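Researcher: Re-running this chain for the archive, since the previous output was lost when a drive failed. Same request as before.
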Amino acid sequence: MDATIALRLPRDAASVPLIRRMFDGTLRSLGVVPQVRDDIELMLTEACANVVRHAEPSDDYTVTAGVHDDLCVIRVVDTGSGFDPRLVRTPAPGEESGRGLVIMRALADDVRFISRREHGVVVALEKRLRFEPGAAGLALGGGNGRRASPSGP
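Model: Regenerated structure tokens:
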């Protein structure tokens, strides 16, 4: 099974719930368990919110979110000025902002930040999917133990 949503979105806060709802609807239709859907929703929200807040001078960004057998692959690409994720400080406990990278790293099975100096950032997130019994995703080939080979960043 291979299902992908790809959108080019304005760098605007209103774009974040749009892609989040669209992809959650896809995962729900496939029968992905709620806990995994919640993790993916939060990872996707953090990646997109970071673009909206920090990816200047970019006017838009691209989100590709796909299901490849039992693997969810998300790529959020902006054309901002880039950053070095190793230099981002860890927020203090209770701090309201600056937690996005920590959250993505905690929830994703694999996370990569590819900074292209003066050409933006690619955030690549992967999460293994689990399906409800009898889910459409299982009938379509998800959860079969095969690892897909989606194209990398």
